[in-house]
């Protein structure tokens, strides 16, 4: 940037660059003229001693007076020769100055043309660069707007998800609502995995206990109970422990809570002669299930010994699919007798159909024979009609003559 008379000009501006190049050309011409003038002055200084010598000779000529009149012609000749030489020197210098000036003008014109072409090419490249830059900028702005729109949409989703998480925390903070949440999740999984007539929600057992879900499996193993309550407070205390003391207390609390829950399920929902020899403890959280199996394997072993199987949403779905296969196999065994009876009836129907097809085939054979005989009779009737038509014009063939029946007699 340069500043002239309070106005700032950018060196990258094409007009400023053209002005600078023109000023440089003018400066170069001035320098060349200055050099030419210096050369002329140098020539003048070279001629100055000669002028002093002439003045000195003039003084001697005046002193010699009239006695040296005969030398005047020679001096005049010398003076003329010197003048001619000086004129020639001046003409030579002027010619050389003209030649140098012409060369400088040619070079300046050539440089000006080259500068103009370079400036035009530079302007073209700058236009192309600016066009490409503007296009890329427009594309980048479009992509940036799309990304900003996607970010805004994601932010809205995050805000909505945050609200859902807060509402979920509010639900899980209350035991009754947490139990309802577990029951709803269990109901959703069971309804997707099993037929509607194979399970009962909130079923009441003979001991008065209400089971969250009772799967009606055939004997063995018999109906099996699924309980959906889980120790969320103990797990949150375990995860949120800030020091060793809190961690130790949380571990003890989690262990005692899960052990009591396993014992309650074993005593309340496993009834001899009424339910299966085991029950399922459903944990609606994969995190609680993973923490239990990773850090408390003794509780898992204790649940096995008390015939309480701990399942998460994923393992519960796999278990229910196995139960579905068991139910399907049992129902197929129940229907095996009916299927066998229907197969016997189907076999009899097939035998009866074979007999009727055979009878129909015999009827078709008899009908074919009758049709063949009818065709023979029709051919004979046709030949007789032809003979009757040609009776007066042709003789009967010998074989036909033998077959002629006298009038009054009928053919047997």
TrEMBL record:
Where does the signal peptide begin and end? none
Pfam short name (any one): RmuC
Mark the transmembrane ranges: 15-37
- Could you list this entry's UniProt keywords, alphabetically sorted: Coiled coil, DNA recombination, Membrane, Transmembrane, Transmembrane helix
- A GO BP entry: DNA recombination
Do the record's keywords include Membrane? yes
Note the superkingdom of the native organism: Bacteria
**Has the keyword Transmembrane been applied to this entry?**
yes
InterPro entries found in the cross-reference section: DNA_recombination_RmuC
Family membership, please give it.
Answer: Belongs to the RmuC family.
What is the purpose of this protein?
Involved in DNA recombination.
The protein in question is named: DNA recombination protein RmuC homolog
Species for this entry: Ruegeria intermedia
